[in-house]
């Protein structure tokens, strides 16, 4: 009896294991089939990406790398640039498949009607010089708004008729600086905040058409948007030349010069791994229910939580410790020395 009982238990165990293994394999195969269906259903749709690679003469920005990534997955990509003969556009032509096309920003209505458009990704952006808001000339504010906000708005409106037909997607790449106030990001942050708010409103309004709108707030990624030391030198000279004498005297040229150190430090702690951004963009493109907000990057979501749920005085203190400028303006240094002499 004991021997028969043992064999029965072994048989039950083996049967249960076999059923479990078959169930696991079946689930795995079903998941694979679903992924294959999603892949082959969506990757042959047309994706329009707007980037600034040709403007800044580089091939290392998020938009540029994103175009190559989506091309490698089999998407039909239209990379919208300011100059189809620029170095960024040339690099894309050399490294991507024939599915990727370079388009000028002046796309005509007739060209728009030639294909079914699934998604528009607005990634074009400029950072400018990182400086106190008072120091930035109005031209910097206007340029940031033109490229970072008005550009995506115009592109989105241009292609909404096609997106309504396909019930497609709009994906806007904003920034963490567009979700929380950050010192020395007055022009850039304001333009990205406008883009984030526009994205939220469009998400609500376009839902009745079946269009999904998502916005990304990436943080801490090393791209070409920050420029290089030569660019910083030009920006610094432009700022010094635009300041009123009293403002220049109060801040001091050394204070403005030291702002370049912040740009270098910021670049040194950023990650060159853009895979978190790519992963979120892919989810926004293919998910049945994409998120309205994605926060790729180290501590991006943490910063948003601190800003939203803690008192503002704590948030300001928090940011002063992380992004505070150790160099004081000339007028404040002078006043501090006078206090020390008196005491």
Describe this structure in words.
Belongs to the short-chain dehydrogenases/reductases (SDR) family. Keywords: Membrane, Oxidoreductase, Transmembrane, Transmembrane helix. With 343 residues, this protein is α/β, with parallel strands linked by helices. It has a domain at 45-225 and 272-322: 3-Layer(aba) Sandwich (Rossmann fold), CATH 3.40.50.720. It is 59% helix and 10% strand. The chain contains 14 helices and 7 strands. It has helices at residues 2-42, 53-56, 62-72, 87-95, 109-112, 138-166, 186-206, 229-242, 245-251, 253-268, 275-286, 300-309, 312-323, 330-342, and strands at 46-50, 76-81, 101-104, 117-122, 169-173, 212-216, 293-294. It has a 7-stranded parallel β-sheet with strand order 3-2-1-4-5-6-7, with helices on both faces. Strand 4, helix 6 and strand 5 (169-173) form a beta-alpha-beta unit. Helix 6 (138-166) packs parallel to helix 7 (186-206) and helix 8 (229-242) runs antiparallel to helix 10. The longest helix is centred in the first third of the chain and has 41 residues, at 2-42. It is globular and about 95 Å long. The relative contact order is 0.10. Residues 31-41 and 52-59 have low confidence and may be disordered.
């Amino acid at each position: 009896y004991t021997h028969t009982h043992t064999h029965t238990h072994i048989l039950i165990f083996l049967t249960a294991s076999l059923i479990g293994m078959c169930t696991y394999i079946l689930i795995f195969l079903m998941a694979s089939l679903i992924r294959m269906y999603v892949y082959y259903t969506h990757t042959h749709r047309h994706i329009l990406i707007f980037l600034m690679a040709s403007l800044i003469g580089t091939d290392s920005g998020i938009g540029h790398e994103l175009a190559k990534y989506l091309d490698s997955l089999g998407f039909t990509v239209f990379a919208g640039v300011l100059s189809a003969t620029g170095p960024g556009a040339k690099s894309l032509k050399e490294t991507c498949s024939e599915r990727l096309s370079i388009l000028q920003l002046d796309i005509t209505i007739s060209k728009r009607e030639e294909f079914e458009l699934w998604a528009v990704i607005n990634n074009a952006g400029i950072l400018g010089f990182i400086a106190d808001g008072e120091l930035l000339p109005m031209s910097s504010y206007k340029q940031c708004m033109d490229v970072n906000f008005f550009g995506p708005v115009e592109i989105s409106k241009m292609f909404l008729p096609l997106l309504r037909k396909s019930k497609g997607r709009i994906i806007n790449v904003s920034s963490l600086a567009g979700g929380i106030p950050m010192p020395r990001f007055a022009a850039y942050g304001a333009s990205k905040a406008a883009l984030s708010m526009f994205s939220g409103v469009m998400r609500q309004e376009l839902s009745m058409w079946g269009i999904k709108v998502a916005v990304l707030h990436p943080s801490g990624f090393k791209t070409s948007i920050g420029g290089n030391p030569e660019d910083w030198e030009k920006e610094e000279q432009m700022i010094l030349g635009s300041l009123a004498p009293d403002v220049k005297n109060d801040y001091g040229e050394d204070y403005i010069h030291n702002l370049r150190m912040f740009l270098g430090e910021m670049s040194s702690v950023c990650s060159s791994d853009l895979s978190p951004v790519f992963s979120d963009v892919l989810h926004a493109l293919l998910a049945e229910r994409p998120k309205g907000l994605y926060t790729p990057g180290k501590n991006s979501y943490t910063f948003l939580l601190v800003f939203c749920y803690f008192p503002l005085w704590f948030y300001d203190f928090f940011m002063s410790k992380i992004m505070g400028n150790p160099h004081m303006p000339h007028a404040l240094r002078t006043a501090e020395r006078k206090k020390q002499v008196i005491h």
